[in-house]
Amino acid sequence: MTSIDRVLVLAGGLSHEREVSQRSGRRLADALRVGELEVELRDVDARLLPYLRADPPDVVFPTLHGSMGEDGSLRDVLELAGVPYVGSDPGACRLAFDKPVAKTVVSRAGLSTPASVTLPKSVFYDLGAPAVMDRIVERLGLPLFIKPSRGGSALGASMVRTAEELPPAVVGCFGYGDTALIERYVSGTEVTVGVIDRGAGLQTLPPVEIDPDGGVYDYAARYTPGRTEFFAPARLDPGALRAAEEAAAVAHATLGLRDMSRTDLIVDADGVPHFLEVNVAPGLTDTSTLPLALAAAGEDLGGVGRDLLSVAATRFT
Amino acid sequence: MTEGSRIDPHVDRYAARARGMVASETRAMFAFASRPEVVSLAGGMPYVSALPLESLGAMMAELVATRGPSALQYGSAQGDERLRERICEVMALEQVTARADDIVVTVGSQQALDLVTRLFVDPGDVVLAEAPSYATALSTFAAHQAEVVHVPMDDEGLVPEALRATLARLSADGRRVKFLYTVPTFQNPGGVTLPPARRAELLDICAEADLLVLEDNPYGLIGFDSEPMRALHADAPDRVIYLGSFSKTLAPGFRVGWALAPAGVRDKLVLAAESAILCHSSLTQLAVGRYLETQPWREQLKEFRVMYRDRRDAMLEALDAHMPAGCRWTRPGGGFFVWLTLPEGLDSKAMLPRAVSERVAYVPGTGFFADGSGAANIRLSYCFPEPDQIREGVRRLSVAIEQELELRATFGPGRPTPGSRSDVPGPGFS
């Protein structure tokens, strides 16, 4: 077992999800601080590389959400710096972070995922927004779910119930990125499934059911304690629960992810899970679902985090 | 059956007034904007680095060494008497005649605002406020479950005819208005100032309607082009409660503000302050008092005025140079803020993430209206960034607006995004 004395938790970053990441990082750092383990929390800025060169920690635990944190670039930087880190490698992050790419990859592995189109802003400019939107509604029907092709925390995401709601939803989405993923809305139970790999095979955590007040799991519903009711495990029959866990494991393995991921799914009335997206740096805030899933599995964030630090350190040696 | 969790076990116990206190993605943008790569034209933080910090440090050390037993002790709920005497001298610059006995020292003028609202407002009572109005005042009124009715402004502040019409309408509806809240000088967020003739007219209207006025005046001494305006209180001391603050003229970290009120109100304010906080910090009160007694504060005010004027000029020049057709903005004679109106069909709240991606931040206008309107507006602040940063920030903002115009030309004008009280940054944000 590699000895770990000093850990660096990275949080913040230059992204729309900075605040959520800071909360995740603080919570993780507090959970890891047991015994002699020295845990430092830092932002990702111009001081990071000099710090890693001058005084490298034993392992880095990135908790940056959104671009840079999850698109593989931070992991590339950590590879360049030659420090062990928890989580997926840069290539796997790139596949997972791009939602349309991840949907394509997991659907080829047999998972169901809602029908969708992925359209950059330029398509609407070049072909005319009304014509494109008419075709979207015609082919995918209503309701629709619109979200940026890259990013998280429901920023720029919205449900579209009528054709009139589509233009403002797409414009809102383009506030957070230049490409929109437009999905047919699948009704069912919204669940999210954590996957942990401590080196002895994938462990799926109990699926967490998300039941937001008002029906939409938007930013306020995610980060205001009390606005959403969570059930862990989800109120699904055993077959559907098992199918959701298997889907998360398939997504994790097919995308080549490491250590920890969280897959968001809709489980329809027939118990079939539909893949929405996967997160390589799941939220760890007070209202995030992964800590809830860990608790339901009888685990705690600090213990799992320390195990993953050991896995990362061992992988590096 | 699995038992659900709402994370917060107290969720069913909160008072109705806590309902609007929810996480906001707009606030999340301000966390992004706090990075140095982003030019923030959003917050209202004074530039305290311009203060003679070494002299202040020495003054604080000397204060604790020589007056420690008083500075570190409880004090009266009304506030330190010597400080109140000095506050009278400060207000004299705005032609206010006051006695130290009529002043209550508060934790910033924000606490005075809270205490006055607590004294006068029952749930459902009407409070009048300018449109737009200081966001945290609106939060205070909401916390006390007031119904805020806005009165329109133009480039010269609150419009008297509109005030008269609003009062008539409310009277016809049988509604009693508890007070008019106004920032008449270098208004936040509008940047506009009520000229003398309108001040007189406003006081006449309030006298006719027997309406109490809450004059919030944090920026009155930060004027660039003229001597300080005569405060409303100077002409109607029995009708006007004046709120003052050292947050902009010295530093917000001391948290020293005050209320000047008629005797009956003052007595209740003292009792309300005692029940809220027992007493203000003796240390910071004595520090501000000492600053006024021993430091060249009038010269410091001049320095602040010159510095903020240069920053205002940088912002106005950059706006003139870069803003696309269809944008309009106010030209403040003092204070910290410019109020910008976007071309028709644009939505400042929806545009904010794109602006932050362009590495510039502002406050959407929606935070300054109790009814959630204001999507066409932006508050720009020039108090904290250096002039070069301001120029670059405005240039980046113009890029974001151009992009938004292109989007709206493609998708058509959208419905304005409804606002919320969370659409403004917290106090520690530059």
How does this structure look, described?
The complex is a heterodimer of chains A (317) and B (430). By secondary structure, chain A is an alpha+beta fold. Chain A is 39% helix and 22% strand. Chain A contains 12 helices and 13 strands. In chain A, strands 8, 9, 10, 11, 12 and 13 form a 6-stranded antiparallel beta sheet that branches. A 4-stranded antiparallel beta sheet of chain A has the order 4-7-5-6. In chain A, strands 2-1-3 form a 3-stranded parallel beta sheet. In chain A, 56% of the residues are buried. The model of chain A has no long low-confidence stretch (mean pLDDT 95). Chain B has helices spanning 25-33, 53-71, 81-92, 108-120, 135-143, 160-172, 196-208, 263-277, 282-294, 297-322, 348-357, 387-411; strands spanning 4-5, 39-40, 103-107, 126-131, 147-154, 157-158, 177-182, 213-216, 240-245, 256-260, 328-329, 337-341, 360-361, 363-364, 377-381. Chain B has an 8-stranded mixed beta sheet with strand order 3-10-9-8-7-4-5-6, with helices on both faces. In chain B, strands 11-12-15-14 form a 4-stranded antiparallel beta sheet. In chain B, α5 (135-143) links the parallel β4 and β5. The mean pLDDT of chain B is 94. β11 of chain A pairs antiparallel with β1 of chain B.
Helices and strands in order, then pairings?
The complex is a heterodimer of chains A (317) and B (430).
Chain A (H helix, E strand, L loop, with lengths): L5 E5 L7 H15 L5 E5 L5 H7 L4 E4 L10 H9 L8 H8 L1 H10 L7 E5 H7 L1 H12 L3 E5 L9 E3 L5 H9 L4 E6 L4 E9 L4 E3 L3 E5 L6 H5 L4 E4 L6 H17 L5 E8 L5 E7 L9 H8 L4 H16 L1
Parallel strand pairs in A: 1-2, 1-3
Antiparallel strand pairs in A: 4-7, 5-6, 5-7, 8-9, 8-10, 8-12, 10-11, 12-13
Chain B lengths: L3 E2 L19 H9 L5 E2 L12 H19 L9 H12 L10 E5 H13 L5 E6 L3 H9 L3 E8 L2 E2 L1 H13 L4 E6 L13 H13 L4 E4 L23 E6 L10 E5 L2 H15 L4 H13 L2 H26 L5 E2 L7 E5 L6 H10 L2 E2 L1 E2 L12 E5 L5 H25 L19
Parallel strand pairs in B: 2-13, 4-5, 4-7, 7-8, 8-9
Antiparallel strand pairs in B: 3-10, 5-6, 9-10, 11-12, 12-15, 14-15
Helix pairs in contact in B: 1-11, 2-9, 3-9, 4-5, 4-8, 10-12
